[in-house]
Amino acid sequence: MMLAIVGIHTQANSCTGISLTSADGANIVARTVEWSNGESPSDYLIVPQGYTKQSMLPDGTRNGLKYTAFYGYVGLASEDYVIEGLNEAGLSAGLFYFPKYGSYPKYDAADKDMTLSDTEFVAWVLGNFETVEDVIAALSTVSVVSTDARAENLHWRVADKYGRQIVIEYVNGIPMVYENKLGVLTNAPGYPWHITNLNNYINLHPGTAAAHKFGDITLEPIEHGSGLLGLPGDYTPPSRFVRAAFYQTSAPIFENAQQAVNQAFVILEAMTIPIGVQFTDKTKIPNIPSATQWTSVADTMNNKLYYTTMYNPIIRKFDLNNIDFSSISYQKHPLDEVKTRPMIDAAID
């Protein structure tokens, strides 16, 4: 996914979300975030209970919906806009780019007190709700609008610790809520289209295809993995959705949450986008290591949030159980203090 919001001067690209479960009951939600036209400022925010914000309006003023965090949360953000996060109640929320296939309600200044910027939707969700059901019930209390002409539409994934997950998309000004039983999300077209499109790949299966007669000859698989023949390998949202769904559903059920978290990172490593593949003019490729700028994994049952970045593949963790959100102050820190991939000498006896 790539956003063109305030402070981000890039065009949109892609992001990929997956979900895993473990035998001990954990629900893991993970995703990548991409910007291919350059580096975007990436930070993590520690937001305490009682932290109050007022939403931006299309006219550029902060006179929209005023919302105060009942729940504290950790958010991964760009320019203070939370893209992905987890709150202390075990609710996960994230925004994904959704160009051309959605539209918000028309802004009405008379409703400014209930108007919420699309880029602040995640912060509003994380600060106010415990469950997916709570979020759905509250949708009628806000009017979501775009506040930056450079940004196209967004859609959102919300998941709670009880295992329920939804996708929210505004279509013709109306919020559409889809049960995300598969647990995968990319970008446009709409979520129902992606689910229907999976039927085109009914032939895919893990492992090796069986040999069979083809006229007078016998066709046999060339080594292993022939059950994957036909799996799309490009980076369009439909292809990434299919690929993510296949990798996710073919993964084993892991014994515990930590194993599932590690596997989520492994799966998303296979979805990362190397810099350069999206540029026809090689003279304009930005000097960044990857189009996938960071990857996050949330363990909603155990209240832990993890991330890696294009600069550092080491997994870093927030244990929300160890944060006193009733007394901690608002904090903002860069995802990477050092923007160089760590390298160490291998041990030699």
Protein model, in words:
A hairpin with a 5-residue loop joins strand 1 and strand 2 (27-34). The protein is 14% helix and 28% strand. With 349 residues, it is α+β, with helices and mostly antiparallel strands. It starts with 16 loop residues before the first strand and ends in a 15-residue tail after the last strand. The radius of gyration is 21 Å and the shape is globular. Residues 1-12 have low confidence and may be disordered. The protein has a single domain (17-334), classed as Penicillin V Acylase, Chain A.
**What is the count of structural domains?**
1
Q: Which architecture per CATH? A: 4-Layer Sandwich
Uncertain stretches of 5 or more adjacent residues: 1-12
Helix content: 10-25%
- What would you call the structural class? alpha+beta
The ordered H/E elements are EEEEEEEEEHHEEEEHEEHHEEEE
Describe the structure concisely for a colleague:
The chain contains five helices and 19 strands.
Summarize the helices and strands and which ones pair or pack.
Blueprint: E1 17-21, E2 27-34, E3 43-47, E4 52-54, E5 66-68, E6 73-78, E7 81-87, E8 92-97, E9 115-117, H1 121-128, H2 132-138, E10 143-145, E11 154-159, E12 165-171, E13 174-179, H3 191-197, E14 212-214, E15 217-219, H4 237-249, H5 257-269, E16 292-299, E17 304-309, E18 316-319, E19 331-334
Parallel strand pairs: 9-10
Antiparallel strand pairs: 1-2, 2-16, 3-6, 3-19, 4-5, 6-7, 7-8, 8-11, 11-12, 12-13, 14-15, 16-17, 17-18
